[in-house]
From TrEMBL:
GO terms for biological process: regulation of DNA-templated transcription. The lineage of its organism: Bacteria, Bacillati, Actinomycetota, Actinomycetes, Pseudonocardiales. SUPFAM superfamilies: Class I glutamine amidotransferase-like. InterPro entries: Class_I_gatase-like, DJ-1/PfpI, INH-QAR. Residues 3-171 form the DJ-1/PfpI domain. This is DJ-1/PfpI family protein. CDD domains: GATase1_PfpI_2.
Amino acid sequence: MNIGILLFDGVEELDVVGPWEVLAAWTQQHPADGYRVATVSRDGEPVTCAKGMPLAPQHSFADAPAWDVVVHPGGEGTELLVKDEEHLDWVRAQRATASLMTSVCTGSLVYAAAGLLSGRPATSHWSTLEFLEVIDPTIEVREDDRFVDDGDVITAAGVSAGIDMALHLVSRFAGAERAASIKRYIQY
């Protein structure tokens, strides 16, 4: 099972690195669980995060494996992505093949723009919750939730909530005991 974490210029550092830390600790310490995590960007080239941190993806859209789980982080770069039809088409294509779509922070705005959250509960960074309703008034905005698991779509609130969401993924896929051991390992 392949978990892909999206990288793009302007991505919020902790939106990527928080879930990465949890998921990489899990997949490396427990390879028998059958999951791998990797990063991907549109062209496979390094990106510059919101606060200047450079990150190099492991894959491009063209050479990436089929993702079973997609993690779409947020950050200032999502302002462009919610209007980027090529990116929204990529998100929709992932939705058609991935069993689980997840987002952190304003990544949920991109999912809303792609039509993935219509009629569903969702959350985002506290400062952007109103934009979920602007993009799609049918979304049931959950302003007090750290993350919202709606079966095949999970949205997480802002920044550090991506760690909570990733620990939830470990629990969902490998059990609460496994998630507790990873939580202890990262001292969270």
